[in-house]
Amino acid sequence: MGLMLAALLGGVPLAAQAADAPQCELDRPMRFGGMNWESNLVLVEVERFIIKHGYGCESEVLPTETLPALAALERGDLDINTELWLNSTLEPWNKAEATGKVKRIGDLYMGGEAWFIPRYTAERFPELKKAADLPKFKDAFKDPEEPGKGRFYGCPAGWACEVVNGNLFKALGMGDTYTLFSPGTGATQKAALASAYQRKENIVFYYWFPTSVVGSMDLVQLELPPYDKEKQLCLTDVNCADPQPTAYPDNPVFTAVNTEFSEKAPKLIGFLSKVEVPLDAMNETLSYMDENELDAEPTAQWFLKSKQDIWTQWLPADVAQRVQAAL
Fold first, then answer.
1. How far is residue 282 CA from its own chain's centroid?
2. Angle, CA of 175, 167 and 194, to the nearest 5°
3. Nearest residue to 75 (alpha-carbon basis) of 101, 36, 104, 105
4. Which of 18, 60, 64, 324 is the most exposed place for a label (fewest CB within 10 A)?
5. From CA 21, how far away is CA 295, in angstroms rounded?
6. What is the pLDDT of residues 163-214, one digit of tens each?
7. How far is CA 130 from the centre of its chain?
8. Kind of pairing, strands 30-34 and 178-181?
9. Per-residue pLDDT tens for 142-151?
10. What is the spatial distance between Cα 209 and Cα 215, in angstroms, rounded to a whole number?
11. How far apart are CA 203 and CA 161, in angstroms?
């Protein structure tokens, strides 16, 4: 029996194995905010795998939306929001950060947002160059539920970008000619756009990147007026009194944590603050997820096995070795 046990342990004494086992800084599961878009879901699963096998921490994911998640982070009901898009949350984020109860700890990548039409639509209507031109082309984008108007596919209901898109829609005076359609979920929005694209239907919509949608479709961005910081700040405010159109700025996507959690878990914060993913790697990961019809967890496994040159840079050598062994 003793020989069999030694063989199973690879000749490593039990005491040494116990010493190598990581001890989590928390005495409870770490609480992640689970948003309903792909990049967030995948990154959360990547981080959960690392904290479990590298740091010995259990975790749970609490499904939520951006603005409720920010409030929960402030209250301490969440420990971390892995992916917060600054452009969509500038005003509420500034208010939350001013309380001292939340912290921005690291930048993931520089995201982007835009209003798009497919290239085949742009070729059918070469005069459609700007978002401000859309009212003249409402018949090209007929809303099936209100044929007298065009349909603009906005941000999924409940997301922070719904506020920005609603204000921009109003600023461009589109209410008389278009309906602002807010899909119930990110998956619903993606399915509707993919279906229309496959049938070569004319569609106009908001989307963000990195995403598999922008990576896999041949799209043209509609021009917006030059970026203006003050106008954009108002667009992020649900109570913006006089919205004015402006282009989306480059959008820093960052990790935010509850301040009290950060003080209790300095090793975890050291790791989480270094999480950064090149845009091309994120696009590749999301395309792999889409093409293989995978959920977030197996996609995270693929990322961890395929992109070790990226994530090992986030970790001390001994932690990286434990994660690699678990793969």
1. 11
2. 75
3. 101
4. 18
5. 29
6. 999 999 999 999 999 999 988 888 889 899 999 999 999 999 999 888 888 8
7. 27
8. unpaired
9. 999 999 999 9
10. 8
11. 19
